[in-house]
Amino acid sequence: MFSIEPNELLRQVAEENDRHAFRELYDIMHKSLYDFALAIVKLREPAEEITADVFIRLWEKRRKLEHGRIRSCRLYLFMCVKNASLNYLRDNKRPEQLDLDQVSLADWELETNPEELMITAEMAACLDRAIRELPVRCGIVFRLVKEEGLSYKEAAQLLDLSEKTIENQIAIALKKIRQAINFKIPAGHS
Amino acid sequence: MGGAFQNRVISSMEQERLWILLGRKLAGVATEEELQELELLLLAYGEDAATMEIIERMWASRAGRAATDSDSNILDRIETATRPVQRTRRRGTWAFSGVAVCVVAFVCWGVFRMEGEKKETMNVIFTRRKSHSNLQFPDGTSVVLNENSRISYNADFGKVKREIFLEGEAYFDVAKNPGVPLIIHAKNVDIKVLGTSFNVKAYPADKGVETSLIKGAVEVSSKIWPGQKILLRPNEKVNIPVSRVPDAAGVQVEADSNAVSGFSDEAPKTTPVPDPPAIVDTLSYNRQPLNAERTSKLIPEIAWMYRKLVFNQESFESVAEKMERWYGVRFYFEDDELKKEVFTGSFSKEALEEALKALQFSYPFDFVIKKSEVFIQRKK
Description:
- Chain A is mostly helical.
- Chain A has nine helices and no strands.
- Chain A folds into two domains: 95 residues, Rna Polymerase Sigma Factor, Chain: A; 81 residues, Winged helix-like DNA-binding domain superfamily/Winged helix DNA-binding domain (Arc Repressor Mutant, subunit A).
């Protein structure tokens, strides 16, 4: 549900020519987009370039962004980054397909916060390890759906997978996470 | 319903199904039927409530990520490339420093000093009728402020504390920062936030403070029932009465607000209650699920962000209340029975008369509009 914000900001950029909204959109989205580009191209500098280019092009094209044509701003930006990343791979004579098993999630270091989850630091560490150790395909689906709030349909479109696969990968991730924390829960806790 | 399922050993196929369903629920793509199916499976899986709760909270919290150094480079590039040609802009406008909040049109931004020894500086942002505002705090928290609303926050927001005072309605998407908890004060209700997205409605005319949780976890408490805390789950809302005397005062406030115009900037009038009212000693509250309305697929509680007015199986009285705010009018009912009729639907750009005519389709009634007053009568 938190995808509301980028959509509203994109509307303000397109219809009201609002630079502040553009800046906000950048603040909200750039880190995730950079991470995604980096996971595909695996080099920091190109990933930065790609992310910056996507935003610059968004600003240049703002008047052409018809209201309502882009239904999900998040998905749109991720798609732009994906295409730009694949173009980069092509220009550098590397396979230009999104091969999920070749994606690198090394820089998507995400940390659970024990206080917020009302769990012990030990359990949070278990959780983090479980998430880190997810298979790449599973990990990337989990991150895009959980952290970026993409729907199954959107994630499927972005990763060229079926919705069923997304659904299964999320179930696998949840199961693994559950295994990691299950035995850590003191009896009687509810 | 669940009794028969209790303590039953869950089959492995059902287990697989449970994780699929939980995933759909967390990702916000589950249907009503799937949610019910999940409930049943979870009942059978009763001993695991604690794990489920941790997983739900884990999902709701957004993981922390450190900003990279490269950010400023990208920003410089974008700043150069998108700078307007005619206007000369000072370099560095992009790099907001300290507590900077971006405010869109129609929003006034003011700073005043609180009285008192410390003279804490508060920033105030308010919206007028028919205008919304998107606010982005430096800590990453974002707030969408509905019309006729006002928030204030400490000028050093994010450093030692994060406190927001709300009058009116706002949708919060709070960045997690465990060292600095965020507390929202609305009337006498405090909402302690554990990293999440939710809506708070607390207009002066409202009898309670309504908190609707979309994602994550919040802890709601009221100053008049100290020690009692309500932990909300995603897709739940709770309405905490502002007064300890729900019935007497409720009627009183309502009768009073009927006399004034629909949307007023004045402070709510409080009429002294004549007889000593019954005081409720324990906080009784009503947990309700958030249900998206079928055609618009919007959750009524947060539809305002889409500039839509949505109601799902709501009484005419509650619909009228929403329409009063939306159209800036005042509703009068011929009799109380009419108020109980139930409507479902959504409006966005319809004029008042069109909207009322649309309502007549699902239940026939007569109406008369006189300036900013709407009289609802039984069909003659």
